[in-house]
Amino acid sequence: MSKDANWQDLPKAEFGFPGPLRNALVEAILTGRKTATTSLLAQYQLSGEPIESVGDRSVLVDSHEQPLAILETTQIKVVSLSSVDLRHAIDEGEGDKTIESWRIKHTAFWQCPEMRSKLRDPEFAVDDDTEVVLERFLVVSRIHTNS
Asked: What is the CATH number of the domain that holds 118?
């Protein structure tokens, strides 16, 4: 039995919220353009979920919760928002060519009503000192289901 034989038991890898953003991020992952992501440390603290470790695997799902691929974490670190570098921003595969454009998009997402609701903080705001989790990953296999 392969390491991925029980992919149904792996945690979900959900990018953005269901809809156009998630669809675009999933496509970027599956085409290899997106090999990194950034999350708020506050999300982990609120949910009680542990931060991923190198070697951890998860199941990439689309906006309809359909499993598409197995991802493996290759690097993880917690830094302040001001410490995110251009290489990481580019590797997120969303077309950013400057750290400024990356930060504008991410700040808007993290301060959107859906994220503020998820964080249970209607006033949530990010600044240079906001702690974020930088993750690098790779697609180790595609999932083909009969559904």
From this structure: 3.10.400.10
